[in-house]
Amino acid sequence: MNKDLIRIKVISEKTGLSTATIRNYIKQKKLRAIKIGGNYYTTLEDYNKLILTFYANDIGLTLEQFKAGIIKLRQEEYAKRNVSENRC
Question: In a 3-state reduction of DSSP, which class is residue 3?
């Protein structure tokens, strides 16, 4: 089996969400998944996107706004690091 696939039951255990809730996310197209032998699986990428969406929603942002904020913070940290390295 592909190592990048995660079983919905594992996501349930890691997040505390019920498998029914996760299946609802699949039906609502909030989470992409495939069904193999009666079990739903999603990719690590889609799982991470779901988690980031939860964090964004908790602070009232869209996923795109949340990602843009992270990128901006990383750029600022990188710029600060370069300034301090140039002073040495």
Answer: coil
